[in-house]
Design goal:
Elements: H1 4-20, E1 25-41, E2 44-62, E3 65-71, H2 76-92, H3 125-140, E4 145-164, E5 169-185, E6 192-200, H4 209-222, E7 232-238, H5 240-254, H6 256-260, E8 281-283, E9 306-310, E10 313-314, H7 321-327, E11 335-336, E12 344-345, E13 350-352, H8 359-363, E14 368-376, E15 386-397, E16 400-413, H9 414-419, E17 421-423, E18 433-434, E19 438-447
Parallel strand pairs: 7-14, 13-18
Antiparallel strand pairs: 1-2, 1-4, 2-3, 4-5, 5-6, 7-19, 8-9, 8-13, 9-10, 11-12, 14-15, 15-16, 16-19, 17-19
Pfam families: PmbA_TldD_1st, PmbA_TldD_2nd, PmbA_TldD_3rd
Biased composition (Low complexity): 123-133
Domain Metalloprotease TldD/E C-terminal: 231-446
């Protein structure tokens, strides 16, 4: 694997070659990744996988025309041919009035912030196997667990670099580790499954394998013998594992492409109240060793913590340079970039701020409702906000979570759901997107 400096130089080199081939402007990304994955099942090693991948992506501009190409052939001759091909493609492409690099005066200058994302990424197959076995053993030891889908452990490290022809060049490295277990309870047609996993940038930050495994086993056994729920309108409480998906629907609706194409249910909502007044949603790319932390965005712009929703009010769109130009606004530092294609937008470490009450208090006045722990399918319309998804979870009766239920659907409209949402105070930073337990009033629940 290349060093951070070597990766930056590799990206700069392909930009120079593109300019020499006739590009008016260019940017390039270089990604170098290695990963090691171990899976076990029923106490025995099932698979060991290792991958190594290095890829260059080049975007060139000839006037307002552009083209993007990528390659994993990193020899000098191949890169020269790639650059020439990209310029030839751009000359034949249609003009795009909004195309171009990020504004030069907005680029990140100086050293990128240090976010403690990399511990070297070294882990042996033996140590990963030991961790995966320990997680599965702990899950299988929970009374009521009858079978296993296995345990898994992984380690990875990546180096990512970006260079542009108008003065930006930087790179950073990040490591990652994961540990999981998935088991079953019951038999035959009444069998149920659940899982637990944890991810971290540094290996010492991973939860203990025994904790992860026990959680997987207990979650699975709790779902045994699910009943059916009577249809009707009722409060729906989302477990943090699934509640964070609601934030994903918000981000899709406020991305630059959705707004410029007018395909968002929040199209006219900037500066208005879209959530209840107690809701604040933040994006923090500078979170130390965060799972999605980054020192700069996919166009070389600086990034900073952002309140996307403040006390229920929608404060910003998420814009790359192209969508910002089209809207007459400034890019927001949320551009993201892969080796192929033009930039899109994404958040970094996104979370909904915790509310004021614990989950038990949040559900204490619910006479009849449902606590959702699993969502199935993707029945969400980003244009209208209509929402309908299969679900499983537990009944809420007289303020208490009681028996498991399955094969039901929850439905509503995201605009109404956001305004009827109340967060609990149990936020934990476990994933790239995090939310506390969430209560949404007046959803339609239908038995399958």
């Amino acid at each position: 694997m290349l060093t951070v400096d070597q990766a930056r130089e590799r990206a700069q080199d392909i930009v120079a070659r593109a300019r020499a081939a006739g590009a008016d402007a260019a940017d390039a990304v270089f990604a170098d990744d290695t990963s090691l994955d171990v899976s076990v099942r029923l106490g025995a090693l099932e698979d060991v996988g290792r991958s190594e991948n290095a890829e260059l992506g080049l975007r060139v501009f000839v006037g307002r025309r552009s083209a993007s190409v990528s390659t994993s052939d990193l020899t000098g001759d191949a890169i020269d041919i790639l650059a020439e091909r990209a310029v030839a493609m751009a000359r034949e492409a249609p003009e795009d009035a909004w195309a171009g690099l990020a504004p030069e005066d907005r680029l990140l200058h100086g050293a990128p912030p240090q976010l403690d994302l990399d511990d070297g990424g070294q882990a042996s197959p033996e140590s990963l196997k030991e961790a995966a076995l320990a997680a599965e053993d702990a899950a299988r030891a929970v009374p009521g667990v009858t079978n296993s889908e296995g345990g898994g452990a992984s380690a990875s490290r990546s180096v990512w670099a970006l260079a542009t022809s108008h003065g930006f060049a930087a790179a950073y490295a990040a490591s990652g580790y994961g540990l999981s277990a998935s088991v079953l309870a019951g038999a035959g047609g009444s069998m149920v499954r659940d899982y637990a996993h944890h991810s971290a940038r540094h290996r010492h930050q991973l939860e203990a394998a025994e904790v992860i495994g026990k959680r997987a086993g207990e979650r699975t056994v709790a779902r045994l013998d699910p009943g059916r729920i009577a249809s009707g309108a009722m409060p729906v409480v989302f477990d943090p594992r699934v509640g964070s998906s609601l934030l994903g629907h918000l981000i899709g609706a406020i991305s630059g492409q959705a707004i410029t194409r007018k395909t968002s249910f929040l199209l006219e909502s900037l500066g208005t109240q879209v959530f209840a007044s107690g809701v604040t949603i933040c994006d923090d790319p500078h979170r130390p060793h965060g799972l999605r932390s980054r020192p700069f965005d996919g166009e070389g712009l600086p990034v900073s913590p952002t309140e996307i929703v403040a006390h229920g009010m929608l404060e910003t769109w998420l814009l790359d340079s192209a969508s910002a130009r089209q809207l007459g606004l400034e890019p927001t530092g949320h551009a993201t970039r892969g080796a192929g294609g033009s930039p899109g937008v994404s958040t970094s470490n996104l979370h909904m701020a915790p509310g004021l009450v614990p989950p038990a208090t949040l559900i204490a006045d619910i006479r009849r409702g449902v606590f959702v722990t699993e969502l199935i399918g993707m029945g969400v319309n980003g244009v209208t906000g209509d929402y309908s998804r299969g679900a499983a979870g537990f009944l809420i009766e007289d303020g208490e979570i009681t028996t498991p239920v399955a094969e039901f659907t929850i439905a509503g409209n995201l605009k109404d759901m956001f305004l009827a949402l109340t967060p609990a105070n149990d936020l934990e930073f476990r994933y790239g997107t995090n939310a506390p337990t969430l209560r949404v009033e007046g959803m339609t629940v239908a038995s399958g």
